[in-house]
């Protein structure tokens, strides 16, 4: 019998420790170490899997001798998903799709696999549902199900043995949290099982040029469940976000070795499954016909394309000594910083006002191009003066009151003009050299100039 080796693995950073302790030495997190028991001679992490590819030893090659044409991308059947993947599915890649329960992870993958099965050999492994449940969902969605191959199994070794026989082009593991490796003694879903199962499947996929999709669950705080090392061993990590009672879903890439990070795809949930939205800006601009103070449209850059979203601000007098500063879809600390800049360089004081900010549609904006639009929305609500519905604004605001340029300014302006906006307040460095038809651009270099331009339009 092989000698057992015991270690303790941190669920946050994946680091190993020889014995249990309350705090991880690497990430300093508390109570995150879990026991990890493996066999020294048969651990799947160190097992030689080269036999799956028909080779006994690896070969050293030069960078110039590698044939890039041998692994061309192929489409998933959804342009929005291809965009998030970086242009399509890469053979031999491992893609992790996470999301909250009811977001539509299994539905989206079932739709994609049914389309790919028309021309590819596809294997769908379900560990959480029975084959009848998957078949009922496919029938309810009206999908062609005569070519898709299904397997109900949670043993990783058995899955790889069957896949080696059927030689699929694409595999789906739904989900990685229920998979288990025989040599690991802990229960499925534990840190050690998720870690070893993902490493086993990822290496098998790469050596056999199989595109592997892994479904992952999220914790109550919205982060991916399981060890952090799970995100390190895969090639692409995507999150499918959206309220269970909402209509729209957003698919965003957080890691991608084959494309842009933070690329965004938008889908609409219907009775027949998820339908891609080709023009996301249109769904986020369903504004009220009546002009309201505190509302303005900004242009954010999501991955490789501009996106128009509405930002709303509400400034209201408060009698408490600690005014509220609440931001939904924006960074709250940055909003507090912008209020200080507004007081110092715009001579607008909101020390006795509650300030609330929200990005319409549930979009989360992380880039600094929303600074100028947020400031104008807050001033509009504070003065109770509505802004024009044909006005857009973007730009980064510095601590000294300067308006800094943002990347892809011309593309943002062109997207705004395409949707009928006629006025734009932008940083001076982002002003186009040639006029854009139908769009009046107001370049500003200081916050005071932006406030003056806003006052002239009231």
UniProtKB/TrEMBL annotation:
Database matches in InterPro entries: AAA+_ATPase, DNA_repair_RadA, P-loop_NTPase, RecA_ATP-bd, Ribosomal_Su5_D2-typ_SF, Ribsml_uS5_D2-typ_fold_subgr, Rubredoxin_2
Locus of motif RadA KNRFG motif: 255-259
Keyword Nucleotide-binding: yes
Gene3D superfamilies, per database record: 3.30.230.10, P-loop containing nucleotide triphosphate hydrolases
Keyword list, A-Z: ATP-binding, DNA damage, DNA repair, DNA-binding, Hydrolase, Metal-binding, Nucleotide-binding, Stress response, Zinc, Zinc-finger
Any one GO CC term of the record: cytosol
Region (Lon-protease-like) location: 354-458
SUPFAM superfamilies to which the protein is assigned, alphabetical: P-loop containing nucleoside triphosphate hydrolases (SSF52540), Ribosomal protein S5 domain 2-like (SSF54211)
MF-aspect GO terms: ATP binding; ATP-dependent DNA damage sensor activity; damaged DNA binding; hydrolase activity; zinc ion binding
Pfam families: AAA_25 (PF13481), ChlI (PF13541), Zn_ribbon_LapB (PF18073)
Amino acids binding ATP: 99-106
Keyword Glycoprotein: no
Swiss-Prot/TrEMBL GO biological process terms: recombinational repair
Domain RecA family profile intervals: 70-218
Family as reported in the entry's similarity comment: Belongs to the RecA family. RadA subfamily.
Known role: DNA-dependent ATPase involved in processing of recombination intermediates, plays a role in repairing DNA breaks. Stimulates the branch migration of RecA-mediated strand transfer reactions, allowing the 3' invading strand to extend heteroduplex DNA faster. Binds ssDNA in the presence of ADP but not other nucleotides, has ATPase activity that is stimulated by ssDNA and various branched DNA structures, but inhibited by SSB. Does not have RecA's homology-searching function.
Entry remark concerning the domains of this protein: The middle region has homology to RecA with ATPase motifs including the RadA KNRFG motif, while the C-terminus is homologous to Lon protease.
Protein name, per record: DNA repair protein RadA
Lineage: Bacteria, Pseudomonadati, Pseudomonadota, Gammaproteobacteria, Alteromonadales
């Amino acid at each position: 019998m092989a000698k057992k080796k015991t270690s303790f693995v941190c669920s946050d950073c994946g680091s190993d420790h020889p014995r249990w302790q309350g705090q991880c030495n690497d990430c300093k997190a508390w109570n995150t170490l879990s026991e990890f028991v493996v066999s020294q001679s048969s651990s799947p992490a160190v097992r030689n899997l080269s036999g799956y590819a028909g080779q006994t030893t690896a070969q050293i090659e030069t960078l110039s001798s590698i044939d890039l044409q041998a692994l061309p991308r192929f489409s998933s059947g959804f342009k929005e998903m291809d965009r998030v993947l970086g242009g399509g599915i890469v053979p031999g890649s491992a893609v992790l799709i996470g999301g909250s329960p009811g977001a539509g992870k299994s539905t989206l993958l079932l739709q994609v696999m049914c389309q790919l099965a028309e021309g590819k050999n596809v294997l769908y492994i379900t560990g959480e549902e029975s084959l009848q449940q998957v078949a009922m969902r496919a029938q309810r969605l009206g999908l062609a199900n005569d070519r898709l191959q299904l397997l109900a199994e949670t043993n990783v070794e058995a899955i790889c043995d069957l896949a080696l026989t059927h030689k699929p082009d694409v595999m789906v593991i739904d989900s990685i949290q229920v998979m288990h490796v025989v040599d690991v003694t802990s229960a499925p879903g534990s840190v050690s099982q998720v870690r070893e199962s993902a490493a086993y499947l990822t290496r098998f996929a790469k050596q056999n040029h199989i595109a592997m999709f892994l479904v992952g669950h999220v914790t109550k705080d919205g982060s991916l469940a399981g060890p952090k090392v799970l995100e390190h061993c895969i090639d692409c990590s995507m999150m499918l976000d959206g309220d269970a009672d909402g209509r729209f879903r957003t698919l965003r890439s957080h890691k991608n070795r084959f494309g842009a990070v933070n690329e965004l795809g938008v889908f609409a949930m219907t009775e027949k499954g998820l339908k891609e939205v080709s023009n996301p800006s249109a769904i986020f601009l369903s504004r009220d016909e009546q002009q309201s103070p505190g509302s303005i449209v900004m242009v954010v850059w999501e991955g490789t394309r501009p996106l128009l979203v509405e930002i709303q601000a509400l400034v209201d007098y408060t009698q408490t000594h600690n005014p509220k500063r609440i931001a939904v879809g924006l960074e709250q600390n940055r909003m507090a910083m912008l209020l200080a800049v507004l007081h110092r360089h715009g001579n607008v004081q909101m020390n006795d006002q509650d300030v609330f900010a929200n990005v319409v549609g549930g979009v989360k904006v992380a880039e600094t191009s929303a600074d100028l639009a947020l400031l104008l929305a807050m001033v509009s609500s504070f003065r109770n003066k509505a802004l024009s519905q044909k006005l857009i604004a973007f730009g980064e605001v510095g601590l000294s009151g300067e308006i800094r340029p943002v990347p892809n300014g011309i593309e943002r302006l062109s997207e705004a003009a395409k949707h009928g906006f006629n006025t734009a307040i932008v940083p001076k460095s982002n002003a186009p050299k040639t006029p854009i038809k139908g769009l009046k651009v107001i370049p500003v270099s200081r916050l005071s100039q932006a406030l003056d331009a806003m006052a002239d339009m009231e």
